[in-house]
Amino acid sequence: MQLSHLTPDTPRRPVRVSPDERVEMVLATSPVGAHQSVWIDYRVQAPRHGTTTHADPSDDSTVGRRVPGRWTHNEGDTSYWQAFLGPFPRGARVTYEPWATAPEGDAQAPPASFRVGTRLHVALLWHQHQPLYRDPDQPIGRGSYRQPWVRLHGIRDYYAMAHLVAEHPAVHLTINLTPVLLEQLDDYLERGATDRALDLTLARAEDLDDAATGEILSTFFDADWHQQIYPYDRYHALLDMRQAGRPFRAQDVRDLQMWFNLAWFAPEFHEGTVELPGGATASVRDLVLQGRDYRHEQLQAMMDEQYKVLRAIVPIHRRLQDAGQIEVSTTPYHHPILPLLIDTDRATIDRPGTEHPPRFAYPEDARAQTAAAIEAYQRRFGRRPRGMWPAEGAVSEDAATIFAEARVRWIASDQGVLQRSGRWGYRSDDPNVLCRPYRVVTAAGDVSIFFRDTALSNDIGFHYQSYGDAWAAAQDFLRQVRERVAHRIDDPDHERVLTIALDGENAWGAYREAARPFLHALYTALEQADDLATVTFSECLDGAPDRVLDGHPSDVQARVHDLFTGSWIDEPGSAPGVDLGTWIGENEENRAWRLLGDARRALVVADVTPRSHPDAYRALYAAEGSDWFWWLGDTQDSGHDADFDALFRGHLVRAYREAGLTPPDALRTVLTPETLVWTFAGPVRSLPIGVRLTVRTNCPGGLRWRFAEGPTSTTMLTPVGGAMAGVRHHDAPLGPFEEPGRLAFTFLCGHDDCPRSAACCRPEERVVMVTPQPD
Per-residue DSSP letters for 618-660? Predict the structure, then answer.
């Protein structure tokens, strides 16, 4: 008689055994005969505290047991048997030996073993970033910031995202904070910086002139209507007043000053008092409950609460990192697309009609931006960063070399980059291929790289906000993780890692209560999952013995060959596959690269160095940030393109001046087409010939429009502003028109939950007169 046990670990189901999970063993004996029996002898070694080592035969925690097999069927000359082991606790090591007996004698299969642990690591990364909104033409101080998004996301996302995970101590994850974001927080907290919206908030409503009042009425509804305005009766009523064109009294303006800010506070501050690191507390609960009729001094009190929250952002991240619950990663300083700084000629662009700009190739700038990020991180967190999320997940072989030179241990990118790497590409749709750390071999040493699951990351960023039930959304996410990933992994030897990486701020604006119900449900579900374990990226590499998690040292990491030059995004309209075309290749983008290259070469020709003129290079490095190029061209629209254009050119002007050089006239010419924006809060009455009109609403849908005596057309509204501008709008560009005439349009709202009484749902015709350009 023979006992067939195909391989030492098969057919064992599951291959990787999770806590409290039964293990099915299938054995085969031949030939078929009477009076046969099968059993399995097994020993269980309970985990020793703080270790994941194999069983020690002398350890009295090792327990021996026997389980009989049950005959299931015969097939040909073979009998098949089934036995079940377990369940077992996390960390237990089980060694088993299959046996069979028959009148002809006994048979034994080779022993095998497995350790009970997680079936899959889940590495979450929340990326938090804002470009440098500081006006290059002004000294840091009052009114020096052109946009308020650092401050507003600070009170909604940057503190609260860390605070929220602290409420789930079993959840470990990574938060990426860019240096340029933290520099701007320092400007507010240490150098007296303010933004225009802050200054308007603190102005006495009775003292405002018509222009300032109009600016407040046009901009202080810049929030998600459904999640930030409609839930609050007074804010909703003020929006209705504005849309109806009714006049605002001073008290109405003051209430709007308050609600624009209150709506951006995280729900935690609305609902109660939050204890901050260092013992301070922050809350706006009483102001929210009051609802209306605020006094001017209450605006300053509300702003004091904002600054308490902003001061606590770095301390809470440092505390959680020191406690081992989170890892704080970073990005090269001004969020540049590193492969483009290294050499634009190597950029992957494949959209018809695009081309490379004049070559920009300054790898020394890529090194400087990386080194500056490390120095800033050490100053704030008291240690070197172990990992970096490259801006937009953009990587290349040369960029990996720069990270290795800087002793960055790990980086992360997108599944699409893995798919296009190597000579023939990688099967990144197979979780056995995707869900593992790889290593990039460079002349400066190896650097580990993780590739995010694109679809699952995007589900959190763009899909689950549509769920009315947060727990159902979280359960659906875990169902997908198990069905699409965990249950398809067949590696018995190494714990695999699923990487989920996405924007950790803008995504939450479209969720109910700023995604707090969803995130609490997600973290709770992950805490309760015995087959999944959340990890930081460094924990994945090093292991966590106290959590019974194996590590993935370099010698067990597969090498990724010919790392593709790409990012997380496939430029709309380009050939399939991720690329760098979002930042380069279109006319506006290439004009910007030409201006940047001219400035860089001017510094070289003038013998201006980072050592001799550090402020000139600081301004130049700011202009190298990815955000300016993202919003140029036709493929992306922030809703604030003119501001981004002006900031980019302003940084270059400052670089010239700090170097003692005269800025060229080309920097006075705008890169983006002249545009007026029509909104319900700021309707446009007159549009000059040759100027484009952007019609903006908060809801998806369409726009039915007609110009002069032309035909009636329908244009679909497209979502914009989700990456940096802080609010998701839906826009439709119209024009420019080359002759005077009457432009009329009607909204076709496509938001399922929009009240039919809302302005975007009413079939009212809106009219803009196209007029000759003023002399």
Answer: HHHHHHTBHHHHHHSSSS---S-HHHHHHHHHHHHHHHHHHTT
- For the record, the structure tokens of 636 come out as 């992306």
Q: What is the pLDDT of residues 351-370, one digit of tens each?
A: 898 999 999 999 999 999 99
CB 250 within 8 A of CB 237: no
Closest CA to 634 of 696, 679, 571, 678: 571
In the numeric block, which tokens belong to residue 1? Answer: 């008689």
pLDDT reported for residue 55: 38
How wide is the angle at C-alpha 768 spanned by C-alphas 764 and 773, nearest 5°?
A: 180
- Per the DSSP assignment, residues forming a β-bridge with 95 are 43, 113
Please state the pTM of the whole predicted model. 0.91
Q: Where residue 637 falls among pLDDT bands split at 50, 70, 90?
A: low
**Distance between CA atoms of 513 and 517, rounded to whole angstroms?**
7
Q: Could you give the CA distance from residue 498 to residue 486 in angstroms, rounded to a whole number?
A: 9
Of 5-14, 92-101, 334-343, which gets the smallest average pLDDT? 5-14
**Torsion over CA: 225, 227, 230, 235 (sign):** negative
Question: What one-letter code names the amino acid at 6?
Answer: L
Orientation angle between helical segments 159-166 and 516-528, nearest 10 degrees: 30
Spatial distance between the Cα atoms of 374 and 641, rounded to a whole number of angstroms: 30
Query: How far is the C-alpha of 182 from the C-alpha of 194, rounded, in Å?
Result: 15
Give me Rg for the CA atoms of the chain: 30
Residue 105, class by beta-carbon neighbours within 10 Å (0-12 exposed, 13-18 middle, 19+ buried)?
Answer: exposed
Intra-chain end-to-end CA distance of the chain, in Å: 103
> For the residues 644-668, what does the mean pLDDT come to?
97
Per-residue pLDDT reduced to its tens digit, 253-274: 999 999 999 999 999 999 999 9
> Rounded to an integer, what distance in angstroms lies between the CA atom of residue 458 and that of residue 468?
18
Could you tell me if 734 and 684 are in contact, meaning their C-beta atoms sit under 8 angstroms apart? no
Under DSSP, the state recorded for 545 is: G
Contact status, residue 476 vs residue 227, Cβ threshold 8 Å = no
Render the burial of 236-253: b for 16+ CB within 10 Å, e for the rest: bebbeebbeeeebeeebb
Nearest alpha-carbon partner for 491 in 87, 121, 172: 121
Per-residue pLDDT, averaged over 282-307, amounts to 98
